[in-house]
Amino acid sequence: MPNSLIINIADNLKAIGSSILIVENNDHFLYRSDVISLLESLSIKVSTGSSLQQRVDFELRNEKDLLILLTSGNAIYLDDISEKATFSGFFLKDYLKQYHIPSIENQNLEVLNRLYLNPPLSKQNKRDTLKIVDEIVSTSEERARALCTSCFEELDELMAQEPINWHSVIRLISKALLVSIGTTWNEKVLDYTNSINEKFQEYLRTSHKQLKNSSSYKRPLIVSKVLDYLKLNFLEDKIALVVIDGMAWWQFLMLKKKIKSTSKERTIHAWIPSITQLSRQAIFRGDSPINSYRQNPDNEGKLWESYWSANGIGKYQVRYEYDRSNIKDFGQTTKLALVYKDLDEKMHGSTSDYLDLKSLTENWIERSGIVDVIKEVSSAGFKIFITTDHGNIQATGWRGLRGKEKLGTQKSGSRGQRHLEYEQQSLSDDFIYSNPELKGAVVQDDQAIYFTNNQSFSTKETLVTHGGSHILEVLIPFVEIEND
Predict the structure, then answer these.
(1) Which of 206, 325, 343, 418 is the most buried (most CB within 10 A)?
(2) DSSP assignment, residue 436?
(3) Which band of pLDDT confidence, cut at 50, 70 and 90, is reported for residue 366?
(4) Would you say residue 405 lies in a domain?
(5) What pTM value is reported for the model?
(6) Model confidence at 415: pLDDT above 60
């Protein structure tokens, strides 16, 4: 369910009717990083820094978004800001009136949302409030314990088989991840997944290159074979390819609950390293990506059109759409591509862990309109295929790049947190030579270097990102929605 508490707060802030708010928030709820992440996903920029930082945020603000400048109450703003802004106050107690606020203000947003959606009939004291919170937490913990224990048992059996059914493995991992987020079981699931990833890396070393030349008639095994599969099996049909950038398997399970249609679910491999510049290019090129390509919607649309034109489909039948919240007039289109970038952008810009990302995903599904678009496209007679270019991982920081390590790097469309690409082979060699502690944790592929475990080129304790070859980044959904 989307976080109704945060959505209501966002709607009320927007309803004030000003594009700039100076908000006094003495309970500091709006200062929380998870709250800021969700508000930003709802087009509200929250500025919590110094007066200088708030000045910068004011000058660089997006006119379409609401800007909130948080203040302790004694801040002095220059006239140009004060004249354009509206002063207001925010109190968490206005939304959770029946509870003892000091007992709940530091709870995670999932707990707060449950409290908000199920208010008691009378006002609760501290003891009763804590009792209600304990019941919510206990229920979540028990549910996580039961499902995760069952998944672990099944995974143990799968990992003992040869060959390993990686589709079943990633589905079970994703189920366990989704139910464990926000509970004490999440760390156990992540640790278990990282141990499975060690075996997955062994599989990649012997099998991934072969996937690039695999047959795509029965099903695609890698992103570069998606278009060939569609051509071989659905050339004469109306098809819609929906690509949701950065969507891991566990996030698709959230979307699946909303779509409520039968589906044929398969698992394919992202391109490695798992960056958009390469992996999404491979989808729309229908072939191995090239390094000189520059990732943008125009170029992607041209690749989509070029592929189908080369296979006898007229240009008037081919259509590409980018981040569309609604689409109705399909004309003579028979080959439709719909790309959604926003989820990946929110992940990169806001989140520090999977708890944040789960809430962001819930809100994105609700606000993007993707479910209605899928229904509309399906009702127009299209066979719908949903996939992504790569997944994501809750990573830990190894350290940031230092001095000359930054020289000659090309980010290739990624944020550079799990992947580096040097302009020269010698620079890549120097990096590996200077950091022997990374042996076994990274792969050097010519000038490229990427992590195979859950580390990142970052100083952050945790962050959600992509770009390496971890199982959560590489094994991704390829799903056919069957028309009812």
Answers:
(1) 418
(2) G
(3) confident
(4) no
(5) 0.88
(6) no
**Contact by Cβ (8 Å): 341, 325:** no
Element (H, E) at 427: helix 425-434
Helix (H) / strand (E) containing 151: helix 126-159
Question: What digits encode the pLDDT tens for the residues 286-299?
Answer: 999 998 899 899 99
Q: What pLDDT score does 350 carry?
A: 64
Name 232's Cβ contacts closer than 8 Å, sequence gap at least 6: 216, 217
pLDDT tens, residue by residue, 179-236: 999 999 999 999 999 999 999 999 999 988 899 999 999 999 999 999 999 999 999 9
Whether 86 and 195 map to the same domain: the answer is: no
Domains in the chain, number: 3
How many whole angstroms separate alpha carbon 154 and alpha carbon 137?
26
User: In the prediction, which pLDDT does 264 show?
Assistant: 92
Residues 153 and 273 in one domain: no
Task: Report d(CA 190, CA 54) in Å as an integer.
Answer: 37
CA separation for the pair 127, 104 (Å, rounded): 11
pLDDT confidence tier of residue 100, bands split at 50, 70 and 90: very high
For range 356-379, the mean pLDDT: 90
Distance from C-alpha of 51 to C-alpha of 236, rounded to nearest angstrom: 61
Domain that holds residue 173: 127-210
Q: What is the mean pLDDT of residues 51-69?
A: 90
pLDDT at residue 413 greater than cutoff 50? no
Do the Cβ atoms of 419 and 412 come closer than 8 Å? Answer: yes
More confident position, 79 or 136: 136
Q: What percent of the chain has pLDDT over 70?
A: 97
pLDDT at 42: 87
How far CA 453 is from CA of 170, 174, 221, 469, in Å, comes to 16, 17, 22, 8
Of 210, 225, 241, which closes a domain? Answer: 210
Q: Cα-flanking dihedrals φ and ψ of residue 362, to 5°?
A: -55, -45
Q: Does residue 118 form part of some domain?
A: no
Q: What DSSP assignment string belongs to 45-103?
A: EEE-S-HHHHHHHHHT--TTSEEEEEE-S-----HHHHHH-EEEE--GGGTSTTS-HHH
pLDDT at 433 exceeding the cut of 70:
yes
Q: 41 and 401 in contact (C-beta within 8 Å)?
A: no
- 159 shares a domain with 138: yes
Residue finishing a domain among 180, 195, 210: 210
Q: How many CB atoms lie within 10 A of CB 40?
A: 16
SS3 for 451? strand
Question: Does any domain span residue 121?
Answer: no
CB atoms within 10 A of CB 299: 14
| Domain assignment present for 70 | yes
